[in-house]
Amino acid sequence: MTDALVYLRAALKAFPEEPLKLLRFNASDGHQVDDVVDSSDLVIEQINQSSLAHDEDASAIVLASDMPSRILRTRDAASSDPKPNPDSAPEQFLTLKALIFAVAQRGERAGAYLRNAAAAKVVAIPALERPGVVEYLLGQREAWEGIVPLHDEAPKESSPAAAEARETVSTQHAPASKRAYVPDAADLEFVRNLRAKHEVVLLDRKQALAGSYAITNESESAATQSNVSISSTGDLFGLRALLKPRLEAAKRQLQAPSKSSAPTTAPNAATNAARRSRAQDPIILLSNSPTALVNMFNVKALLQDGMFVPPEEARRQARGVADQVVTIQTRSDDEGSNIPRGQQLARRVLVVDSAEAVNRLGSGSMGPGQDPWNRVIAVFTTGQSWQFKTYRWKDPRDLFKNAMGVYVRWNNEAPNPQVRDWNVTDLQVDRTKRHTDKQLVAFFWRALNNWLQRRKPHMQLS
Pfam families in the record, alphabetically (predicted)? Predict the structure, then answer.
């Protein structure tokens, strides 16, 4: 048994490039019209009713344009129980006119299609279901979830392939006819190669602690070396016993220079060397203003450890006594660093908060090359010009040409209007989010290194 949807789909599939070629529309008075919207009858030409193929000699099929098809207005209704029927509930199904209108409007976008359908007073297909319905009508897909099958349509499971599958399943479930699983030889070889070359074997804690060690036992009197191996039993005490002679020999070598007599001038020479080394270190100059967010109490925690401590709290922890010079130590690659890799310091930096302290860091010899102000690489300011009265460069414009200016403020406070005319780097500290401090410090060192690369390449930190 066939119905209107089957005939319509056969006509639309006959000419994919021009799907409406075999359709003709008649008005209620019998005259032919150009648009399906104005029609009352649908005439399908050149479609054989038995084979549903294109046949020029086939008689015309006349159907009412408002006849409901078996395609639901929304496919969600297909899951209802009992399922709707075009005869008992035609209002739940799309008419032939609505389907032909959707095919004619297939090139329009969703919004334009909905507007055109409303203007033509045609039921519109939902936007998400419209592509699937049109593809089904044009034969680009064989099924659609929102179609109610014919009453005498045989279920899909009754096909020969499905019947054979049911027989196979019933045979497999029969206890008497179970067959042994025979794996494919190619699959076996593939799995074997996969396990041998690419599989990672996970170890438990006990297996991970156990291991095989090879220890080189060097004799001080012999040039030859012999390897001593420990079996994978996790015997760490045995490993320590074998390493003990080598550790004691290393300790004796380290203590040997200290036992030798040293001249009385050694402390003075070491002190002079330390002074000469200190005379080459870069200098960061802080503001000694009481309102400064970075002072001598919290600068080391910020620039070295990447953690901002409020100045009042840092002063209280230090009991009100600050160091005259704060040293920011160099970090090596094997130590934990709060500064990201690539921004780690490669030199020691000295931090002071007054012009007198900068002058004391000089080497004591005369000459422009020994001027400690030439080693000042950054100046922290609070935006108050009185801070620079005792500096070598009293004008902020000259000062920030010879040292990078840094202005630190709370992120929720407006900046000092005076710093807008100064060449300074703005650092905004969050009042509560301490996890952002490391990012702020990394930004500072990166900006300082870039400034040194342009202005003082011989003082670069990394």
Answer: CDC73_C (PF05179)
